[in-house]
Write a structure and sequence with these properties.
The chain is an all-alpha fold and about 200 residues long. Helices cover about 85% and strands about 0% of the residues. It has ten helices and no strands. Helix 2 runs parallel beside helix 5, helix 3 runs parallel beside helix 7 and helix 7 packs antiparallel against helix 8.
């Protein structure tokens, strides 16, 4: 069992280091806030969250696209690795990218967010990644259409959530997380996705 997951982690790390887009995204979300700080400004919280969502989403997109192109998903299905296990490992690797930006820009981020915000930020980042997976399947792996549509949805959801009181933010983000998770799982086992493998 442990061998399955260590293999999956190695595969996801390989996907990250092979994707120049993911590496560029990590550099961008780390350096851009520093440039703002040098100019005496702090990025708005909505931009930080959108950056984190896009960085996670880019990796999720590339990883699932590689699974489809290289028939990796069929391999994982035959190994009886569940959708949840795959997604959690992908999210773990994706979060490690974002962690670089969080650590470098921690003072600014700590100023913008309170500990209770974790209760809605984590679900909204997860649901953005589920949205990216859904977009990947619907577009048949067409990156531009997926990126444009999902990025627009992510920004709209993030703005809507930030305009709400904290308790509403938590409820909305948990509700969206549940809905996008259920749709993603359904699509993962659907004929539409299997036909792309």
């Amino acid at each position: 069992m442990l061998n399955k997951y260590s293999f999956l982690i190695k595969k996801e790390l390989r996907d990250f280091f092979r994707s120049y887009k993911c590496i560029l995204m990590v550099l961008f979300i780390t350096i851009y806030p520093i440039i703002w700080r040098i100019r005496g400004k702090i990025l708005p919280d909505v931009i930080y969250i959108a950056f984190f969502q896009m960085a996670q989403g880019q990796f999720i997109f590339d990883s699932f696209l590689n699974d489809t192109k290289e028939k990796g998903s069929l391999f994982f299905i035959n190994m009886k690795i569940s959708f949840e296990s795959q997604f959690l490992i992908k999210m773990l690797i994706a979060f490690s990218q974002v962690l670089v930006s969080i650590l470098v820009n921690f003072k600014d981020i700590a100023y913008l967010f309170s500990p209770i915000d974790i209760l809605w930020i984590i679900p909204i980042i997860f649901q953005a990644s589920f949205l990216m997976f859904i977009g990947t399947i619907i577009s048949g792996g067409a990156e531009l259409s997926t990126a444009l549509s999902v990025t627009a949805i992510i920004f709209a959801i993030t703005f809507a959530v930030l305009l709400s009181p904290t308790i509403i933010r938590i409820l909305i983000s948990l509700g969206l997380l549940t809905i996008t998770y259920l749709i993603s799982k359904k699509m993962y086992y659907s004929k539409i996705y299997r036909s792309q493998l």
